[in-house]
Structure formats: structure tokens, C-alpha cells
Design a protein that fits this description.
One of its GO terms (biological process) is chemotaxis. GO terms for molecular function: transmembrane signaling receptor activity. InterPro entries: Chemotax_Me-accpt_rcpt (IPR004090), HAMP_dom (IPR003660), MCP_chemotaxis (IPR051310), MCPsignal_dom (IPR004089), PAS (IPR000014), PAS-like_dom_sf (IPR035965), PAS_fold_3 (IPR013655). The structure is a single chain. The chain has a five-stranded antiparallel β-sheet with strand order 2-1-5-4-3. The protein has two domains: 225 residues, Beta-Lactamase (2-Layer Sandwich), CATH 3.30.450; 184 residues, Orthogonal Bundle (Helix Hairpins). With 551 residues, the chain is an alpha+beta fold. It starts with 19 loop residues before the first strand and ends in an 18-residue tail after the last strand. The longest helix is centred in the middle third of the chain and has 143 residues.
Length: 551
């Protein structure tokens, strides 16, 4: 037993109508524990499997109890009694335990323990008894297969005093004693009747033979009844602990009733074996399907997570692309507005050029009129100069009287010459202006044609930009719809991922429950090799006995 383990006074109640079942190998290492035993003990499945069974032994249990247990098991007999076990947290729980050797091919290959809830009255009696054993020892009593029995003559007396319905062996013992008493009484009556000689000897001999025959017949009947019942008890114990491979061998009995009992027990064993194998196959199939579903769900979860990540990145890219397209649409809209403004400006520029061409034409026309006026002025100056020359000639003929007139005529001729000279310069300027005006008019006309081309180009650009703006708006609207669809897909993918996770949890729980069911069904030995044949000890005492009751 493990020493120095922490213990507490907290008691855990074993649930009603449940069984705590475990199996150990020959060295006491746990090889199987059912879910109820795992739960009540407080340990996990992995902590129990492979651990020595004394991991649950409570230090308050007397050592002689376990000495009796192992001594009984080594004799291939079952042991029963009340046990106080220790939980992992230091608490405790009381159980009624029956420990049975597992026999396969005639040899013990392990031990099974089946425990049920102990009643409060039984627990109180066991606590008092164990405390007394710890303090004072057994004191005239002994432990036998978990039961406290008196030593010597008190043991036989207690056996005789057992009720008729408690022990068949005790009933047969009473029958033998009553038979002997009847023979003794008959002998006494013969002796008291005064018979003598041959009659007395014959009577005594007859009573002796009758007594011996009766005792022999009773012994034979006892053996024929008890041995099959012992075998049936052991077989039932093996089946109860899950050993379904044991073969029933009723050849040793000729009793039709016992043979029927063996037959129906074998039918029960075969039915349980078939059921256990079918359940085991179903559980294994469920585990395989659960494993496949879990693997598929795990792959689906990974792919869904990857798809979700891709959709999130796609959504981010679509959002960025939508922003870019929206910005392009805004720029196209602004460019369209600028193109409209440029078209308006070009139109106004064309109108200004047309006005300039018209003005240039007006200036050209005015310049031609100025040329005509200059020509008139030149003609007048020429005629004035001729007249001045004529006046000078005439003043020279007049002599002194015409000197003043000659001076005036000279001044007039000088003015006429200056006027002619100025008119010539004006003419030259007007001709040069006409040339420049003609060149300017030509350039203005070309500028007008260029402005017309610019206006046409600006109009074309405006139309193209308008189409680009319309297409950009349609793209922005389409991208917005795609973005909404991607967002919906991302949301659906996240929902699928949640469903996949929930399905994974459900499948894992289903697999766990199937695994627990598989562990539970492992209690039943359904192996296809090495069928077990049970050969019970004919001297074994296996009648049902009360747990830890002083006999």
C-alpha cells in the first residue's frame, strides 16, 4: 500500500444502480476500468491503466483484509466484502466488492472486481469491525473469502444454526445429524425392548446397514448436487466478469435438470457473445466513420479557413480596386467638366478669332480708304506744287511787285513738297500696314481654322471622357456588387467554418463516447482464439454468503 498519502473526510456517494468494474493482470496492474469507476475514483483513464490497483487503497483498511483477498484469489476462489477506497483528491467511497479470478484455458490470467454501492447500515458495521480489527486483531475469529467466521466448534454450531434457506450444505448436514439421531434412538428402543440374541443382533445390523446406506446416499446426493452447483456458480461468475469464451462442460453430471441449467447458461453466454461481438463491430465501424468524418471535417476546416483568408484578401483587394475605380470615375468626371470648360473656352476663343479676323478685314478696308485719301493728298500736293511754280514764275515776271508773292509761293511750294513727302511716307506706311494686315488676316484665318480643329478635338475628347466617366461609374457599381458578393461569401465561409468547428466538436464527442463504449464492451472477452474451459475446484466453498457478517 502507498504510504503518506493525503486523505480527507469528504465522502463520495456511489450512484445507485451502477457498477464499478475493473480488471487487473496477475501482478495487480489495472488493465481495464469502466467509466463509472474512473469517475468515482477521481483519476483519469490514462492514470489508472497500467497503475497498481492499490492506487485506490485507503490507509484505514486493515491489512488482513487484503491478505485474505489474495489468499482466496490464489486458490481460484472469489472474494467478497466491503471496502473503503481512496479517491485521487484524498476523499473516500464505500463499495460492496466481489473479486473473481479470470480463468482461461484452465489457468488464471487476471482478476476482475465488480463493486456496487454499500448501504449505510453495512458501512456502519464495517467501520466498527475494521476499527476493532485495527485495534485488537481478529481475537478468536478468522477471515475466510471476505467473511469473518468463528474458529473451532463455534463455526460448526453457527453453520447448523443458519436458516434452511441460507445454505444447502448446512441443510444436508442437518439431515445427516437427524439420520444419526434416528438410528441412535432406534438402537436405544431395541435395547430397551428387552430383545436378545439373534433378534437383537439382526435388528442392530439392519439399523447399522440402513444408517450407513442412508448416510452414503445422502453423501452421494450432496456431491451430485453441490459439485454442479459449484461449477455453475463459478461459470456464472466468469460470465458476470465478462469472460464469454468459457466452455460449459456438463458431461460430469447426469442430472437432466442440471444439464438444462448448463444448456441455458451456455445459450445465455452465446447470446451475450454474439451481442458483444456485434456491438464491438458496430462501435468499431462507428469509430472508423467518426475518424473519417473527423479527418474530412479537419480538412474542410483547414480549407474553409484558407478560403476565408483568400476571400478576406480578395475583399481587401476588391475594396482597394473599388476605391481606385471610384477615384478614376471622379477624375473622369472632373476631366469631363474640364473638357466642357475647355470646349466653352475654345468656342469663345474661336469667336474672338472670328471677331479679330473681321476686325482685321475692317482695318484692311479702312487702310485701303486711307490709301485712296493719301493718293488724293498726293495729287493735291502735286497740283499745289505746280501752282506754286507757276506763281513763282509769274512773280518773277512781276519784278519788285511780285517779290512778296514769290515768297508766299515759295512757302506754298515748300509745304506742297512736305505734304507730298508726308503723303508718300503715309502711303508707304499704309502699304506696309496693308501687307502686315494681309499677313495678320491670313494668320487670323489660320488661327480660326486651328480653333475650329481644336474645338472639334476638344469635343471628341469631351465625348470620350464622358464615355470613360460612364464606364467608370458602371465599373464602380459592378465592383460594389462584387464586393458585396465577396463580403457575403466571406460571411458564409465564416458560418461554414463555425459549422465545421461545431461539427468537429460533435464528431469528437461522438468519437469519445464511442471510445468509452468500446472500453466498456472490452469488459467482455470476445476473442476468437483460445477458448476457455473452466475446471473448478471441487472442494471450493462457493455458496452465497453475506458480506462481512460475523458467523
Amino acid at each position: 500500500m502507498r504510504e503518506n498519502q493525503a486523505i480527507t473526510s469528504h465522502e463520495t456517494q456511489v450512484p445507485e444502480k451502477t457498477y464499478l468494474i475493473s480488471k487487473t493482470d496477475l501482478k495487480g496492474r489495472i488493465i481495464y476500468a469502466n467509466p463509472v469507476f474512473i469517475e468515482v475514483s477521481g483519476y483519469s483513464h490514462d492514470e489508472l491503466i497500467g497503475a497498481p490497483h492499490n492506487i485506490v487503497r485507503h490507509p484505514h483498511m486493515p491489512a488482513v483484509i487484503f491478505q485474505d483477498l489474495w489468499q482466496t484469489l490464489k486458490q481460484q476462489r472469489s472474494w467478497s466484502g466491503l471496502i473503503k477506497n481512496r479517491r485521487k483528491d484524498g476523499g473516500f467511497y464505500w463499495v460492496k466488492a466481489r473479486v473473481i479470478p479470470l480463468i482461461e484455458n484452465g489457468r488464471v490470467n487476471g482478476y476482475a472486481s465488480v463493486r456496487v454501492r454499500a448501504q449505510p447500515k453495512e458501512i456502519k458495521e464495517a467501520e466498527y469491525l475494521y476499527h476493532s480489527i485495527q485495534q485488537q486483531g481478529l481475537r478468536g475469529f478468522r477471515l475466510h473469502e471476505g467473511q469473518l467466521q468463528a474458529r473451532g466448534w463455534r463455526s460448526a454450531l453457527n453453520t447448523l444454526l443458519q436458516p434452511l434457506n441460507r445454505s444447502l450444505r448446512a441443510s444436508l448436514l442437518r439431515f445427516g445429524i437427524l439420520t444419526g439421531s434416528l438410528v441412535t434412538l432406534s438402537v436405544g428402543l431395541l435395547l430397551g425392548s428387552g430383545a436378545s440374541g439373534t433378534y437383537l443382533t439382526a435388528g442392530l445390523a439392519s439399523l447399522g446397514v440402513l444408517s450407513l446406506a442412508t448416510l452414503a446416499y445422502g453423501w452421494i446426493v450432496t456431491q451430485r448436487m453441490m459439485q454442479p452447483l459449484h461449477s455453475a456458480t463459478h461459470i456464472a461468475q466468469q460470465i458476470a466478469t465478462g469472460n464469454l469464451l468459457i466452455d460449459l462442460n456438463p458431461q460430469h453430471t447426469r442430472s437432466q435438470e442440471i444439464a438444462q441449467l448448463y444448456f441455458y447458461m451456455d445459450m445465455m453466454r452465446k447470446s451475450l457473445l454474439s451481442l458483444a461481438r456485434d456491438v464491438h463491430q458496430g462501435i468499431q465501424a462507428s469509430l472508423d466513420v467518426s475518424t473519417q468524418i473527423e479527418d474530412g471535417n479537419r480538412q474542410l476546416s483547414h480549407r474553409t479557413a484558407a478560403q476565408s483568408g483568400s476571400l478576406q484578401r480578395t475583399a481587401a483587394n476588391m475594396e482597394q480596386l473599388t476605391m481606385n475605380v471610384q477615384q478614376t470615375a471622379d477624375n473622369a468626371r472632373l476631366a469631363n467638366q474640364l473638357a466642357d470648360q475647355s470646349l466653352s473656352t475654345a468656342r469663345r476663343g474661336g469667336e474672338v478669332v472670328q471677331d479679330m479676323v473681321s476686325t482685321m478685314q475692317d482695318i484692311h478696308n479702312s487702310s485701303e480708304r486711307i490709301g485712296d485719301i493719301v493718293s488724293i493728298i498726293e495729287g493735291l500736293a502735286f497740283q499745289t506744287n505746280i501752282l506754286a511754280l507757276n506763281a513763282a514764275v509769274e512773280s518773277a515776271r512781276a519784278g519788285e511787285a511780285g517779290k512778296g508773292f514769290a515768297v508766299v509761293a515759295g512757302e506754298v511750294r515748300s509745304l506742297a513738297q512736305k505734304s507730298a513727302q508726308a503723303a508718300g511716307e503715309i502711303k508707304n506706311l499704309v502699304e506696309d500696314s496693308l501687307k502686315r494686315m494681309a499677313t495678320g488676316a491670313h494668320h487670323a484665318k489660320r488661327a480660326g481654322s486651328t480653333m475650329d480643329e481644336i474645338m472639334q478635338s476638344v469635343s471628341d475628347v469631351t465625348h470620350l471622357i464622358s464615355e470613360i466617366s460612364t464606364a467608370s461609374n458602371e465599373q464602380a457599381s459592378g465592383l460594389a456588387q462584387i464586393n458585396d458578393a465577396v463580403s457575403t461569401m466571406d460571411s458564409d465561409t465564416n458560418d461554414n467554418a463555425d459549422l465545421a468547428r461545431n461539427l468537429g466538436v460533435t464528431v469528437h464527442e461522438l468519437s469519445r463516447q464511442a471510445q468509452e463504449l468500446k472500453l466498456s464492451i472490452q469488459l467482455l472477452n470476445t476473442g476468437s482464439t483460445g477458448r476457455s474451459t473452466y475446471a473448478p475446484d471441487p472442494n471450493a466453498t462457493q455458496e452465497p454468503v453475506p458480506l462481512l457478517k460475523v458467523a
